[in-house]
Design brief:
The chain is an alpha/beta fold. The chain is 52% helix and 15% strand. Strand 2 (43-48), helix 2 and strand 3 (69-74) form a beta-alpha-beta unit. The two termini are 42 Å apart. The relative contact order is 0.13. The structure holds uridine-5'-diphosphate and magnesium ion.
Length: 335
């Protein structure tokens, strides 16, 4: 096999780990190229997601040192998922397969050998699944577990314990490009593409340096995003809840009629007060969930770009947005 492999690494304020990540990836790529498993035109593409530190400078100097490294500079920070998409969509026409991986070296680089093996055997999507979560803090471990359970119960099908470490073939990437959603949750979308897929297990290590860019607040919004952008089950649940409450209220009606017949009606104050609060709360909750979906629809109908690339730094295919605009204008003039 002599297929072209592109590694896509989203980076947000990763100046501390980037040199080490680059060193290890270079070693890995050279070994793979030397053993003839991938083409020597393979690359490592770092996507700078609007970092505020020296990340982009480091990427530029890596590229200057070695054409193995390429860089994509986004116009601003758009979050992990969009950065990943920007990378994958930019490289999809240049590579035969792409592996996405975090910059912090938590994912075991060596697992990619097995991924490529599966690709050679005809798999289009290979999911990296972590074996254990021993290296994560107790807090991170339990919240992550809760996250997967919740996702599953809410009807969002994801691969258990799979983050965004995965290999995708070119045609799988083409498939991904057909999904135009603005509310992006790649882990849920990729299984929808179809094609033969496989799973590769690896041990997840601790973050090499720097700190997690996913604090609790971001994690919760990530979970809400995942659920509401993949399933409408919460809306069904609200409908069911409404039916149950309606049934309960019939029961209460019968109960109060009986109390009335007996002649003991004055004692209902506590009960009334509680019901008002409970029902009020439920209505607000229901409105909130519905509002969440309407918000999604609002964003989808706007069709805003999911990312804007300022520059693609690459030895063969590089461009800046300015070049592209100039080229487009020239083409239009020629017509
Ligand atoms: N990341 C990004 N944009 C962001 C936040 C994170 O591109 O707004 C990248 C980050 O550089 C890393 C990956 O996403 O390569 C995963 O982030 P992190 O390791 O902080 O998440 P955790 O592993 O703690 O869930
Ligand atoms: Mg991490």
């Amino acid at each position: 096999m002599n297929d072209i492999l592109y590694f896509v690494i989203p980076c947000y304020n990763e100046e501390e780990v980037l040199p080490e990540t680059a060193r290890r990836l270079r070693e890995k790529m050279h070994a793979l190229i030397k053993s003839g498993r991938i083409s020597d035109r393979s690359r490592v593409v770092f996507v700078n997601d609007g970092s505020r530190d020296k990340t982009w400078d480091i990427i530029c100097s890596l590229h200057a040192e070695d054409p193995l490294f390429s860089g994509i500079n986004e116009s601003r920070n758009r979050g992990h998922q969009n950065a990943l998409l920007a990378g994958l969509m930019t490289v999809r026409s240049y590579c035969d397969m792409a592996i996405s991986m975090d910059a912090d070296l938590q994912d075991d680089i060596n697992a990619c050998d097995e991924m490529i093996e599966k690709y050679d055997q005809g798999c289009d999507i290979v999911y990296g699944v972590r074996n254990a979560r021993d290296t994560d803090s107790f807090f991170k471990r339990t919240t992550a577990l809760g996250f997967y359970r919740l996702m599953d119960q809410m009807g969002a099908n994801t691969v258990y314990n799979h983050a965004d470490y995965r290999l995708m073939s070119r045609r799988a990437l083409e498939g991904l490009s057909e999904f135009g959603e603005v509310n992006l949750f790649l882990r849920g979308i990729v299984p929808m593409i179809g094609y033969p897929s496989a799973v590769v297990y690896y041990e997840r290590a601790e973050r090499f340096a720097g700190e997690s860019k996913y604090p609790l607040k971001k994690m919760i919004s990530f979970a809400v995003e995942g659920i509401t952008s993949l399933s409408t089950k919460p809306i069904q649940m609200i409908t069911n809840l409404g039916i149950i409450i309606f049934l309960v209220s019939i029961g209460i009606l019968i109960y109060s009629l009986i109390r009335h017949a007996i002649g003991a009606t004055v004692v209902g104050w506590t009960f009334l007060a509680v019901s008002v609060w409970a029902i009020g709360g439920l209505i607000l909750l229901a409105l909130g969930v519905i509002g969440e979906y309407i918000g999604k629809i609002y964003l989808e109908t706007k069709k805003r770009p999911r990312y804007i690339i300022e520059q693609f730094l690459d030895a063969e295919h590089g461009f800046t947005t300015r070049d592209l605009t100039l080229r487009k204008n020239m083409e239009e003039e020629n017509q």
